Amino acid sequence: MKADVGPVRRVVRRVEAGAGEPAVVLEAGMNCGAASWQWVMPLLAPHVRVAAYDRAGIGSSVPAPGLVTIDHQVDDLASVITGLAAGSCVLAGHSWGGMLVQLLAFRRPDLVAGLVLVDPGHEELESALPLPAQWGWRVINAVFPDELHDDAPVTLAAMRELRAAAKPFPDVPVVVLSAARGFPRRFRAHWTRLQAALAAAAPQGRHVVVDGTGHNIPRDRPDAVADTILAVAAQARASGG
Question: Which in 2, 79, 98, 203 has the greatest CB count within 10 A?
Answer without folding.
Answer: 98
